[in-house]
Design brief:
- The chain is an all-alpha fold and 373 residues long.
- The protein has one domain.
- It is 60% helix and 1% strand.
- It has 11 helices and 2 strands, in the order ααααββααααααα.
- Strands 1-2 form a two-stranded antiparallel ribbon.
- Helix 1 packs across helix 3, helix 3 crosses helix 5 and helix 5 packs parallel to helix 9 (280-302).
- The protein starts with 41 loop residues before the first helix and ends in a 10-residue tail after the last helix.
C-alpha cells in the first residue's frame, strides 16, 4: 500500500533467456526440480514474505517502521498482502522458467490489484495521499497519473526488488520454485482472502462517510487490466541474450548511480511535475517513456557476459538509496501527524548497512544468472 507514498521509482527490463539457453535447473516443469527435502526453503520464503512490505511500505515511509509495531493490523495485514503477492509472482515465474521481464509484468498486475482493487486509491478522490492528483489527470473516476505511478512503483519496488534481494541471499535455491502445488494454492487463497478483506475495509467502509461512490465499471476495467498483465507476464517468451564479447558489464557504481538517477527522475515526475505540466497525458507519456528507456538500457547491459546477481543487487541498491536518503526528511520533516515517523532514519541506515554487506557477499559468490536482467 505504497499509496501514501505514491510512486514507483526506477523501471526495469523485460528481455530474458530462451528456455533452450538455460541450464536444466531452470526448467521447472518437472517436480524433481523442486528443492529437495534436505534443503530448507522456509527461511527464503519468510525473508521474502517480510522483505516485500518492509521495502514497499517501511523504507518508502508509507508505513514507517514503528507503525508496524504501533498498529497490529499493519504487522499482520501488510506482510500478508505484499509478501504473498511477491511469493506468488516469483513462484509463477520460476515454475515456468521465465525471467525478470515476467516478474515485472506480474508485479504490475499486483500493483493494479493493490491500488485499484484492494485499497481503491485509483478511484477514491478522498484518498489522503493523493494531494493534487485527486483532481489532476482525473478522468472516468480514475486518477491516471497516480494509477500509472503506483503500478510502476509496485512492479519494481514492492515485487521485483525484494525478489532480487531474497534470491541473492539464498543463491543455492534462487533458480528453483520454492512451493509445491499445495503451498501454491495456500498462498493464492491467502492473498485472495486478504485482498477481499482490504476491499471491504478500504473500498466500502473507511471512506463511506466522505461520500465515496464506487465506480463498478472502472473496478471491472481494473480486473481486466490486471488479467491482461498476468497473461502477458506468463506468455512473455524469454529471449536468448546477445552477448557482446567486446563490451563488459557496467561497473557497480555506474549501475547504482544510474538507478538512483532514474529513481529521482521518476519521483520528480510524480511529485513535482503535476505543478509544472498543464496536460496530464503529457506527464503520463513522459513517465512511461522513462520506464521504457531505463528498461532498454538495463536489458542491453544484461545481455553482456558476466551479468548476474552482483549487478542486480547494484541496481537495487541504487533505487533503495533514494529512500534511504529520504529517510531523515520523512522523520524530521513536516508531517500531517497521521504517522509515527520516529526511527525512520535508523531504519534507512540499517538497510544501507545490509545492502553494503550483501554487495560484498555476492561478489564472493560464483556468477549465476537467472534470466536476463
Amino acid at each position: 500500500m505504497e499509496e501514501r507514498f505514491g510512486s514507483n521509482p526506477w523501471p526495469t527490463p523485460s528481455q530474458e533467456f530462451s528456455r533452450s539457453s538455460q541450464p536444466a535447473a531452470l526448467h521447472f516443469s518437472s517436480p524433481a526440480l523442486l528443492p529437495r527435502n534436505s534443503q530448507r526453503i522456509w527461511p527464503a520464503l519468510l525473508t521474502l514474505y517480510l522483505l516485500a512490505p518492509l521495502i514497499g511500505e517501511g523504507l518508502s515511509g508509507s508505513t514507517p517502521p514503528l507503525m508496524f509495531l504501533h498498529n497490529p493490523f499493519n504487522l499482520l495485514y501488510q506482510p500478508a498482502l505484499y509478501g504473498s503477492g511477491a511469493i506468488l509472482v516469483r513462484e509463477l515465474v520460476r515454475r515456468r522458467g521465465l525471467g525478470w521481464g515476467s516478474i515485472l509484468l506480474l508485479g504490475a498486475a499486483y500493483g493494479i490489484l493493490e491500488e485499484g482493487l484492494v485499497v481503491t486509491s485509483w478511484f477514491n478522490p478522498y484518498w489522503p495521499d493523493l494531494g493534487l492528483l485527486a483532481s489532476y489527470g482525473r478522468l472516468l473516476d480514475t486518477s491516471w497519473v497516480w494509477a500509472v505511478g503506483l503500478t510502476i512503483y509496485h512492479a519494481v519496488v514492492s515485487i521485483t526488488l525484494p525478489i532480487i534481494l531474497t534470491e541473492a541471499l539464498f543463491p543455492s535455491i534462487a533458480a528453483q520454485p520454492w512451493l509445491r502445488k499445495r503451498g501454491l494454492r495456500v498462498v493464492t487463497v491467502w492473498l485472495t482472502l486478504i485482498s477481499l478483506l482490504g476491499l471491504l475495509g478500504f473500498g466500502f467502509l473507511a471512506f463511506r462517510k466522505q461520500g465515496y461512490v464506487h465506480p463498478p465499471l472502472m473496478y471491472l476495467g481494473a480486473v481486466f487490466l490486471a488479467m491482461a498483465f498476468v497473461w502477458w507476464g506468463l506468455h512473455l517468451s524469454p529471449k536468448l541474450p546477445v552477448v557482446a564479447a567486446s563490451a563488459a558489464v557496467p561497473g557497480p557504481w555506474r549501475l547504482r548511480v544510474g538507478a538512483f538517477a532514474a529513481t529521482c527522475a521518476f519521483f520528480f515526475l510524480l511529485w513535482a511535475a503535476p505543478y509544472l505540466i498543464a496536460f496530464p497525458i503529457v506527464l503520463v507519456a513522459v513517465m512511461i517513456a522513462l520506464v521504457v528507456l531505463a528498461s532498454r538500457w538495463v536489458a542491453r547491459w544484461s545481455r553482456r557476459a558476466g551479468w548476474g546477481p552482483s549487478q542486480r543487487v547494484a541496481l537495487t541498491s541504487g533505487v533503495l538509496c533514494f529512500f534511504i536518503l529520504l529517510s531523515p526528511l520523512i522523520e524530521f520533516g513536516a508531517t500531517s501527524g497521521r504517522k509515527i515517523t520516529a526511527g525512520q532514519t535508523l531504519f534507512g541506515l540499517i538497510f544501507l548497512v545490509a545492502l553494503i554487506w550483501l554487495a560484498w557477499r555476492v561478489k564472493r559468490q560464483p556468477a549465476q544468472q537467472v534470466g536476463a536482467m
